[in-house]
Amino acid sequence: MRKGYLSTAPCRAAIRVCIIWSTPEARQRSPIRIQPHNSKLAFRSLVRKYDCDVCFTPMIIAADFMRSSKARDSEFTTNRADRPLVVQFAANDPQTLAEAASAVAPFSDGVDLNCGCPQRWATAEGYGACLINEPELVRDMIRQVRSRVENPKYSVSIKIRIHKDLRRTVDLCQKAEMAGVSWVTVHGRTAEERHQPVHYDAIKTIKDSVSIPVIANGDVKSLKDVESTYLHTRVDGVMAARGLLANPAMFAGYENTPLECVWDWVDIALEHGTPFTCFHHHLIYMLERVSSPAERRVFNALSSTSAVIDYLRHTYGS
Q1: pLDDT tens, the chain, 318 aa long
Q2: Residue 281 is assigned to a ligand binding site
Q3: Per the annotation, does 242 bind a ligand?
Q4: Continuous segment of H or E residues that includes residue 268
Q5: The one catalytic residue among 18, 117, 261, 278
Q6: Is 187 annotated as a binding residue?
Q7: Range of the domain at 93
Q8: Do 236 and 147 sit in the same domain of this protein?
Q9: Which residues contact 300 (CB under 8 A, 6 or more apart)?
Q10: Which of residues 179, 208, 240 is at a domain's end?
Q11: By C-alpha distance, which of 86, 91, 184, 174 is closest to 131?
C-alpha cells in the first residue's frame, strides 16, 4: 500500500459517467471523445490522467436531487481538479430540471439531459429514452435551463437514442438546436436495440442535419473504435462507456489497462476513501482482459483491500 492514504468517507459505484478525450496532436486527426458509465469522482480522477478532457457525472434524478439534501450529498461530489465537468440529469419537468441545473451550475461546466437510457425503470418514470418521443417537452426543458442559468458559456446538452423513422430523430435534434442546446450525443441504436450493430449511417445523417456539435456513442472499446467511428460519421466527438471501465487508459492509446493505471487507481481510490466493493469491482473490470480464468476466480474472490493489494504486488509487481 502506498503511503499517505486513508479509507474513510463512503461512496457508491457510479451509474453513468462521460469523459471526453483529446490531445493537441490527436485533435489534428480525430475528434474529441467521451465516456459514460460507472464512476464518480475517484474514477473521473483516474481517467483524467489518461488524456480525457471532460467528464460527465452518473445520471442523477433531478426531482430526488432537489427534494433531498442527502441525495445531493450522495449523488454529486466534486473538487477543483474535477473540471471540465458536466452533470447528467434524468428529468421530465422543465422547472425541476432548471432548478437542479441552477444548483450545480456554480460547481460544473454544463448539464446534460438523459434522453437515451432504455432501462424499464427509467422509461416507466418518464425518464430516459421515452423522451425522444416528446420533442416539445425536451425543447421546453432546454429553454427553461437556458432561462434559469445566466452564464451563457454554461453548456446544456442532451443524449438520445434514434427512432426507427430517422426523420423523427432529426426533427428532435433540430428542435433542440432551436431551443439552444449546446450539443447532442447520439447512441446509434433504437431504444429497443441492445447488442445489434450501431447505425453509423443514422448518426451521420443527424450530424449533417444540424449545425451544433454531434457526439457519437455505441460500442467504443478501443482507440481504433474511436477513430473508426469518426471516419464513418465525421462527428465532433465519440463517447465510450464499457470500454473505459475495462481500460481507463484507452483514450491514451493503450490496448489493455497498463500496470501504471492499475496502481494509479489503487492510490486514487484509497485517497478518496472508496469502499471496497467499488474499489474491487473497478479492478475486476480492468484486469479481465489480461487475466486467465483461474486468475480471475482467485482475484474476484478477494474480500479486503489489503488482500487485493497483496495480490497485485505478488502477481504484477508495483
Answers
A1: 232 222 222 222 222 234 444 333 334 444 555 444 445 899 999 999 998 878 899 999 999 999 999 889 889 999 999 999 999 999 999 999 999 999 999 999 999 999 999 999 999 999 999 999 999 999 999 999 999 999 999 999 999 999 999 999 999 999 999 999 999 999 999 999 999 999 999 999 999 999 999 999 999 999 899 899 999 999 998 888 889 999 999 999 999 999 999 999 999 999 999 999 999 999 999 999 999 999 999 999 999 999 999 999 999 987
A2: no
A3: yes
A4: helix 259-271
A5: 117
A6: yes
A7: 59-240
A8: yes
A9: 284
A10: 240
A11: 91
